[in-house]
């Protein structure tokens, strides 16, 4: 019998915690839930958790602060952040700090399961930094200068309207560029695109 991978869920919303615990349990994971990041850290033992799924906005310590704390403690456990629509800039900042992914609420069950499985695969076969950078740069090689400008704006956490103003184009044109970015880099989510851009050092 295979050992169930241990997933930790941190969210101050009890209904969300219960819903995610049920989803992950029926999909074969061993799940532990915590209401706050502080509560989790009080019980955390490195090596006992395979992946952490945390809300980004919580009372006390935020998901961003949690990522920084775990990195400072040299924990290799991947962290996926759940974010509201207004938190994308915060989520990008957290990815720069070391989070492996972020998913926007509300999300489909499949989106979370895919993010967790990718995080677990990445953890077990992590390429060297130099290799990862080369691979990321190769994914961006076909972008036009203007598409790179839009991507830099996204990595900076700017919304379409601000990027449009900065570049002297319409918000609708920014949307077209965003769609082009997703297609050219062959990504399924904005978080995947951010991860590639950050890894490439954009």
From TrEMBL:
<keyword id="KW-0804">Transcription</keyword>
<dbReference type="Pfam" id="PF00072">
    <property type="entry name" value="Response_reg"/>
</dbReference>
<feature type="domain" description="Response regulatory">
    <location>
        <begin position="6"/>
        <end position="120"/>
    </location>
</feature>
<feature type="domain" description="HTH luxR-type">
    <location>
        <begin position="136"/>
        <end position="201"/>
    </location>
</feature>
<keyword id="KW-0238">DNA-binding</keyword>
<dbReference type="Pfam" id="PF00196">
    <property type="entry name" value="GerE"/>
</dbReference>
<protein>
    <submittedName>
        <fullName>Transcriptional regulatory protein FixJ</fullName>
    </submittedName>
</protein>
<dbReference type="InterPro" id="IPR011006">
    <property type="entry name" value="CheY-like_superfamily"/>
</dbReference>
<dbReference type="InterPro" id="IPR000792">
    <property type="entry name" value="Tscrpt_reg_LuxR_C"/>
</dbReference>
<keyword id="KW-0597">Phosphoprotein</keyword>
<dbReference type="GO" id="GO:0003677">
    <property type="term" value="F:DNA binding"/>
</dbReference>
<dbReference type="InterPro" id="IPR036388">
    <property type="entry name" value="WH-like_DNA-bd_sf"/>
</dbReference>
<dbReference type="InterPro" id="IPR016032">
    <property type="entry name" value="Sig_transdc_resp-reg_C-effctor"/>
</dbReference>
<keyword id="KW-0805">Transcription regulation</keyword>
<dbReference type="GO" id="GO:0006355">
    <property type="term" value="P:regulation of DNA-templated transcription"/>
</dbReference>
<keyword id="KW-0902">Two-component regulatory system</keyword>
<feature type="modified residue" description="4-aspartylphosphate">
    <location>
        <position position="55"/>
    </location>
</feature>
<dbReference type="GO" id="GO:0000160">
    <property type="term" value="P:phosphorelay signal transduction system"/>
</dbReference>
<dbReference type="InterPro" id="IPR001789">
    <property type="entry name" value="Sig_transdc_resp-reg_receiver"/>
</dbReference>
């Amino acid at each position: 019998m295979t050992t169930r991978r241990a997933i930790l869920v941190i969210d101050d919303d009890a209904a969300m915690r219960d819903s995610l615990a049920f989803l992950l349990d029926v999909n074969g994971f061993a799940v532990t839930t915590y209401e706050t990041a502080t509560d989790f850290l009080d019980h955390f033992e490195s090596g006992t958790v395979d992946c952490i799924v945390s809300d980004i906005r919580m009372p006390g310590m935020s998901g961003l602060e949690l990522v920084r704390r775990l990195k400072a403690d040299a924990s290799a456990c991947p962290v996926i952040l759940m974010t509201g629509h207004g938190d994308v800039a915060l989520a990008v900042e957290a990815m720069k700090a070391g989070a492996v992914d972020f998913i926007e609420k509300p999300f489909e069950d499949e989106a979370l399961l895919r993010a967790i499985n990718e995080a677990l695969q990445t953890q077990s076969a992590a390429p060297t930094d130099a290799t990862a950078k080369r691979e990321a740069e190769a994914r961006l090689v076909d972008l036009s200068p203007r598409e790179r400008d839009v991507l830099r704006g996204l990595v900076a956490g700017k919304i379409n309207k601000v990027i449009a103003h900065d570049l002297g184009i319409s918000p609708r044109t920014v949307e077209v560029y965003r769609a082009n970015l997703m297609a050219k880099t062959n990504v399924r989510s904005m978080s995947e695109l951010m991860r590639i851009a950050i890894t490439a050092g954009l």
